[in-house]
Amino acid sequence: MSSRFPIPAQTFRFEEEIQRSRFITTVAHAPTSAEAHSFIATLREEFADATHNCWAFLAGPPGTSGQVGMSDDGEPHGTAGRPMLAVLTHSGVGEIVAVVTRYYGGTKLGKGGLVRAYSSGVQQALQALPTKEKVTYVEARLMLGYSYVTQLKLMLTSLEVEIDEEEYELDASFRLRVPEERWSQFQTEIEGLTNGQALLEPETADR
Question: Which domains does the chain have, with CATH numbers?
Answer without folding.
Answer: 4-129 (3.30.230.30), 135-206 (3.30.70.240)
